[in-house]
Amino acid sequence: MKELSDQQLLRYSRHILLPEIDVAGQQTLLSSRVLVVGVGGLGSPVAMYLAAAGVGELHLADGDTVELSNLQRQIAHTTADVGRHKVASAAQRVTELNPDVSVHEYAQRLEGEALDVAVSSVDIVVDACDNLATRFAVNEACYRAGVPLVSGAAIRAEGQLSVYDFRQADSPCYRCLYHEGGDDLRCADSGVLSPLVGMVGSMQAIETIKCLLALPGTLCGRLMIIDALTMDIRQLRLGRDPGCPVCSAGR
Q1: Are strands 158-164 and 57-61 parallel, antiparallel or unpaired?
Q2: Considering only Cβ atoms within 10 Å of each terminal Cβ, which end of the chain, N or C, has fewer?
Q3: Strands 232-237, 222-227: parallel, antiparallel or unpaired by DSSP?
């Protein structure tokens, strides 16, 4: 791997002090590629923390433009960005934060072959979107490609987080837990507590780094549920669904 420059040694010094990361781990992060699907409430802190952490390539996908109502929670965007594509706004924040990071923009909803190509070109995918159809499609694309998926959600005052690591033969997938016909709750209809999305997005960034560095203790096989009003955090064990339409038959 390429040696770190003096500026990089200084920038990432607090990571390098951690025995779980050290210089070798930071070099791994700098050579890693992450696709973030959705750069709204969850994707904003994901993108910014991964950029700050020195992930070398961030692929940002979102077909929406910034609206005034987004600014209550989507911290990658500012008032001046209203009307601008979210990926352009987020890409600017990322490069201002860390010029080491190369940003690839998808100002569209990734579907079909385009989604498969985008997933197969990265090391890990972060699902930070806000609708079930996209979540199902991203899950299937990651499963087919064998690419780990870090999935997060937040609505009202409840957050959820899990990891589907398709490098592991016994990993469940998103469809093992959620099925078609379920409730597709959206912040626009139900509301969401502003700092909650930052909390879940930050945890997604942590899980992403753990997966990239092959650190133990990821949330693969576990679902974390957060109640922000009581600050109760609990975990449920997840197993593969033998009847899952995505992963039950194998690749």
Answers
A1: unpaired
A2: C
A3: antiparallel
- Number of Cβ within 10 Å of residue 106's Cβ equals 18
Write down the pLDDT at residue 180: 77
On whether residue 181 sits in a domain, the answer given is: yes
Interhelix angle 132-145/112-120, rounded to 10 degrees, is: 50
Q: What is the CATH number of the domain that holds 107?
A: 3.40.50.720
Closest CA to 109 of 27, 199, 40: 40
Identify whether the C-beta of residue 124 lies closer than 8 Å to the C-beta of residue 150: yes
Question: Measuring CA to CA, how many Å separate 215 from each of 25, 211, 220?
Answer: 10, 6, 12
**Within a domain: 23:** yes
Q: SS3 letters for 132-182?
A: HHHHHHHHHHHHHHCCCEEEEEEEECEEEEEEECCCCCCCCCHHHHCCCCC
Query: pLDDT averaged over consecutive 10-residue blocks of the chain (251 residues)?
Result: 94 98 98 98 98 98 98 98 98 97 97 97 97 95 98 97 96 92 68 96 98 97 98 97 91 73
Q: For residue 125, what pLDDT is reported?
A: 98
At residue 183, the pLDDT reads 62
Q: Is the pTM of this model over 0.85?
A: yes
Give the domain range for residue 231. 13-237
Q: Is the residue at 44 inside a domain? A: yes
Let me know: does 221 contact 171? Beta carbons within 8 Å: yes
